[in-house]
Structure prediction request, 207 residues.
Amino acid sequence: MSGLEKTIQLLNGKLKGPLPGLKAQLKMVTDPRPGNIVYYEVDDTSIKAGVLVLLYPLRNRLHLVLTRRTNRVDLHQAQISFPGGRQEEGESPEQAAIREAHEEVNVLPRSVQILGKLTPLYIPPSNYCIYPIVATTNKRPDFKPSLHEVDEVIEVPMDHLLDPKNVHKEVWTIRGDQALVPFYLFKGQKIWGATAMVLAELVEIFE
Prediction:
């Protein structure tokens, strides 16, 4: 068994135990936080979405895939996010995440092995509650971005996220107000918001 395979096996086991949860997510929250509501308080009123946290080997390093959204989508335009989207009627979060990843970046459903779930995260500005599904593939998918939804496919090494020197903070103007925004910096890309909060929990599990 290779080192990457052992890492995936260990991660699979950790995802079956108690998760770091909100405490880890808040390490990368914007200050002031856009609302203090947590996912279980809006179960009946939020829009549910599954997102795929997909891990795969590339050049002997474990990577995950993110996307930069286009300006043509309805919400979170031009932001960096996980492949994923709204659950359709009768779908589970896992089914939604895999379907959307196929539609957005051509991840083949039959290639995906689900490892577990991270803690759901409610996003007040859009009323979405995202359910992060952690999965793996044996080899790098043949990514083909949807022209309508995806401007760029971003492949981030997991060890890059684990390095504290790649975490930064800046004051930004968001919806007319100033906020202190933490983000992961990768090749000039600033990974912030809900995506960074989900990554913060994954990073803590790896640590």
Q: What stands out?
A: The two ends are 21 Å apart (CA to CA). The mean pLDDT is 92. The chain has one domain: 3-25+35-162.
